[in-house]
Amino acid sequence: MQxxxxxxxxxxxxxxxxxxxxxxxxxxxxxxxxxxLATLGELDHAIQEAAxxxxxxxxxxxxxxxxxxxxxxxxxxxxxxxxxxxxAREHGKTIPDARGDVQRGLEVIxxxxxxxxxxxxxxxxxxxxxxxxxxxxxxxxVVAGITPFNFPAMIPLWKIGPALSSxxxxxxxxxxxxxSTSLFLxxxxxxxxxxxxxxxxxxxxxxxxxxxxDHPVIQGVGFVGSTPIAQYxxxxxxxxxxxxxxxxxxxxxxxxxxxxDLDKAADxxxxxxxxxxxxxxMAISVAVPVGEKTADALIERLIPRIEKLKVGxxxxxxxxxxxxxxxxxxxxRILGLINSGVEQGAKLVVDGRGFTLQGYENGFFVGPxxxxxxxxxxxxxxxxxxxxxxxxxxxxxxxxxxxxVMDNEYGNGTAIFTADGDTARDFASRVNVGMVGINFPIPVxxxxxxxxxxxxxxxGDLNQYGPDAFRFYTKTKTVTARWFSGIKEGASLNxxxxx
Length: 499
Known about the structure:
The chain is α/β, with parallel strands linked by helices. The protein folds into two domains: 3-248 and 457-479, 3-Layer(aba) Sandwich (Aldehyde Dehydrogenase, Chain A, domain 1); 252-438, Aldehyde Dehydrogenase, Chain A, domain 2 (3-Layer(aba) Sandwich), CATH 3.40.309.10. The chain is built from 16 helices and 23 strands. Helix 15 links the parallel strand 19 and strand 20.
């Protein structure tokens, strides 16, 4: 059986711990590879080597670093099919969805090709008599990225691009469930001209995560995953004096107003709720139709669309809408939450619990499910299901719908479908959620903006990619310079203005 190691100093190396995690085929339920789990000694070696490499990389001018990003982007495009197949094989998502995973990561790399413009400082001459002031952006040093299973290409690229183009070295710890994509991206970066050691890929579990959080050389940590782990990582990193940006879970609502185009709203809900088997932090998991008439009409449109969805392995190509969930534990948890919804009184309009697929009986498949008459006290509403389950919470008014969104503990994304501009503007202005869609179900900003949620969906004050990423991965140094030409003054013990 294939054993997957680490990427250290520009080459694949075998693990030495003797500990491995299974890399599953979610469609069959079989183990397809084993990934080595690093020791703290292996992690320390990778970090120390990264620190050595970072010195020269930081001294490389920003334009040359940007050229590496340009070459890297070209290589990603050339290897798009291979990357998509790699993502689909370990995650289970369809090939078109896997290509989207890679593409949205590539878009961040494309922005990083213009990194020099993001890294410019500020300057003011003659700020005082003979005094010039200027501020420089300098890299943090060695940083770490801890990335989740659900986007094996996109989120590592969100971390790699801004961190490296800012002059840092990075320790990337991908999810042990989907390790292969990150290792291949490291190979492509080497081909693009990245010096060995600047990117190290260390596979591991909680032992490695804690080692990253406690290591004195690591200056910043970026994480994406569940809210409890995000909060844990943020707290431990901050207590060790590290900069941290940690993104957690979500419970994304879509409000459907009576004046909305209900066919378009239904299509949007199906795509946003069931794509990637619901394993997206920006998935819409709660539909909030306003008014009983709107709710009845929406449910009527949703049922046939959901019942037509095709579930299967990625190898079935374009004949499949979504694939399995990542593990048997995930499947069991999702089915348990569906059962709890039924027990607590929600109406299960489309039941995906009994889904089976001939030849893939041991796969981690869950059919699409749709609930109606869900209430906020139910577990299916309170928990992030992270599966192909859409809950419908009926609201009597716009204000009640808005309050439902605002009272939820998560604040990652939300959307409203309406034909009324005043309602849309009011919703966007008042809602306490980080990313808002208007007649747009998954409001993931384009890569030259920044991605990030509010409330328990994010910990830290800077978002991912875009301008915020360059702020996160750099620190500001301000220089006050005086030139004494024509200035005559003696010593002064007074603290005074420079002007």
